[in-house]
Amino acid sequence: MSDEKNGVAVKEPLIFELSSPGRTGYSLPELDVPAEPLEDLVPEDMIREEPPEIPEVSEVDVVRHFVRLSQMNHGVDTGFYPLGSCTMKYNPKVNEDVARLPGFAGLHPYQPREMVQGALQLLYDMGEYLKEMAGLGHVTFQPAAGAHGEITGLFLVQAYHRARGEERSKVIIPDSAHGTNPASGVMAGYTVVEVPSDERGDVDLAALEEMMDDDVAALMLTNPSTLGLYDENIQQIAEMVHDCGGLLYYDGANANAILGYSRPGDMGFDIVHYNLHKTFSAPHGGGGPGSGPIVVSDELAPYLPVPLVERDGDDYYLDYDRPETIGQVRSMYGNFGVVVKSYAYIRKMGPDGLKKVSQDAVLNANYLQESLKGHYQLDFDRTCMHEFVLSGSNLKKEYGVATVDVAKALLDYGLHPPTVYFPLIVDESLMIEPTETESKETLDAFIEAMIDIAGRAAEDPDDLHGAPRHTPVRRLDEVTASRRPVVRWYPEEDADA
User: Looking at the whole model, is its pTM more than 0.85?
Assistant: First the structure.
């Protein structure tokens, strides 16, 4: 990678370019057992003809290389990370310590029941917490993340309707939905039908009414939505779906906005998935791990994946005797370590603390929205929940500065940009979620940077087209990077091959 600092070109070497024959970054003891010939250990057709081109570097070079890379990266432990709909908040490190306790981290899933009573009790108690927060009575921890919870929930929808002798084929999804919703619907074999939003950003009731028939399997809904708006007609929506025999699915990606204030089950939802790695303090990003438990109504309980954690007095056990189950959707009992982190978080916060989480998240979002709406367009000007969506369309129309220019310019202020160009129903969208963990000083710095960028758009738009200018890597050609990614290093002599 290369950059220009103070007008001087600087090139950071790749780990391959630090390689020198004969150097090693490790020292292993001699084998204390007889060495087996390679051909006795590996099938002949899988043995390489040439050794892999692995960098030969010293330990100190390895350490410095990866520490340098980590310092070049932006993360929630180094700065503000206001990604809308992703809840990139600070997570207390004590929860990581709890998950690493030997009694949890050293467990094997095939240990006898009497040896894992503590782990089973944790899963049982955690399930009780989630059931109370969802307002529904049955839970499984098998789904590995939110999208996995979605498709598991849709398999339950299928099982429910088939048990009633029905083969419904339609799932309704709002135009503001997370992209995983339609993807899950298609993967589960349904036809996905989009319902538009009305002028206030809620589900258009008239359009929804026209879609209601005996072919509707479910409506998947996020409340509050990706627009950061709590649907004012949620109970009427639930009645419409149930009246036609359908089920209501709650995408819990935004549940951190309602903790202690409202419960999906009370709104009329039949299925709820929670993103433990968003709402309940397990690091989110970098590909995982996640956990997407689902909580369901009594009518759907018979179809839950096996096994379920049950309790008989002081004895906790795994229940496989569920003849109507959809079967397992993941090995064992889900991502147990993530559940431990979330359990520690809930126990530390308590009911009042969790309610304060939502209170502060909503307060922070409204503070940012009110401070910025005079500088950026706000299509739905009403009290938001934990996030809100601005539009850079005014800057693009007046000065030719697109949302992507605003996002890149924020990097020069040491701030990670918000989610851009989603949801799709807002032109030039900037989706901002400050979370509950950021201070007023941090929010004020973000406000100041956003206002400054809007001013620069009017004064010198061409300057913003070249942002960022002070980051380790300047603006990339994102189209080429997407369509022709370079994910492999070649020696100079092979670079043109």
Answer: yes
Is 21:492 a contact under the CB 8 Å cutoff? no
Predicted confidence (pLDDT) at residue 39 exceeds the cutoff of 90: no
Mean pLDDT score, 44-71: 89
The model's pLDDT over 336-356, given as tens digits with 9 standing for 90+, comes to 999 999 999 999 999 999 999
The residue type of 395 is L
Alpha helix (H) residue ranges in 373-477:
393-399, 403-411, 440-459, 461-465
* pLDDT single digits (tens) 182-216: 999 999 999 999 999 999 999 999 999 999 999 99
Domain 356-483 -> CATH class: alpha beta
Placement of tokens 């160009």 in the chain: 421
The pLDDT-based confidence of 409 (bands split at 50, 70, 90) is very high
Q: Sign of dihedral through CA atoms 206, 431, 285, 116?
A: negative
Least confident residue range of 205-214, 235-244, 285-294, 477-486: 285-294
407-420 per-residue burial string, b: 16 or more CB within 10 A, e: under 16: bbbbbebebbbbbb
Q: Which residues contact 379 (CB under 8 A, 6 or more apart)?
A: 201, 389, 391, 426
Helices (DSSP H) in 258-411: which residue ranges?
A: 264-267, 276-279, 336-372, 393-399, 403-411
Domain ranges of the chain: 14-72, 94-349, 356-483
User: Which residue is listed with tokens 């809840």?
Assistant: 87
Other C-beta atoms within 10 Å of 133: how many? 24
CA dihedral 312, 318, 322, 324 (to 10 degrees): 130
H/E stretch holding 252: strand 247-252
Fold of 94-349: Aspartate Aminotransferase; domain 2 (3.40.640)
Tokens describing residue 120: 């089973």
* Contact predicate 140/177, CB 8 Å: no
259's tokens: 């903790």
What are the distances in angstroms from CA 269 to CA 54, 240, 247, 343? 53, 12, 8, 24
Q: Where are the beta strands (DSSP E) in 79-190?
A: 138-140, 170-174
Distance CA 207, CA 196 (A): 7
